[in-house]
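Lab notebook, bench 4. The sequencing result for the construct came back, and we need a structural model before the next group meeting so we can plan mutations. Quick request posted to the team channel:

Model the 3D structure of this chain.
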Amino acid sequence: MRRLLRTGIEVLDRKMGGGIPAGSIVALEATPASQAELFLYELTATRGTLYLSLDRTDSAVAESIREAKTRTGDPTVRYVGGDAPLDNASKLVSALPESSNLIVDPANVLERQEAPRYRKFMNDLQNHIRNTGSLAVLHCLDGYHMPDLRDTTLHMADVVFDLDTTIKGDRVENRLAVPKFRGGNAFADVIKLELQEQVEIDTSRDIA
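Done. Here's the predicted structure in token form:
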């Protein structure tokens, strides 16, 4: 039986039977205007983390993590820029140590590269994450201009978290579904979340 790795969100970990199997790739789908970064920041508190930023500078990400009013760790943050983001990301991923977290934020930049090279990156990533017993989370922005290779990401991911953010009246509501959980304890219910200073389960019963 594969070892389970905690996400740092206690109620979510319990629903998943203790966490996510080591060696898994997770695709976190969320709108750009959501507070999905809180998932990523709280994950850094669970174990050593390599945080690859493809939009914001490494100093901007590190500052956001330091100022977050939630549990965080001290991740290694690297900005992946230039004309060859897949090559640059691959070099950093290849040095990921045993039992670590890898965060790619956002994956959209890589999903817009050439299809054969992206598939090779994903296959190499899958092999390395499995061999090191680590956990990779790809932050997949779900906006108006979806990358052509998003289907490839979701197909190759072991777990898919789908965070839906809507405005109802004077409230912002966040609902988390887990439509795919390869090798783990899948669950059919949708979790209502409060994304404020930290990720918490909304215990109200109006999930309809």
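Residues 4-143+150-168 form a domain with the Rossmann fold fold (CATH 3.40.50.300).
Will bring this to the meeting.
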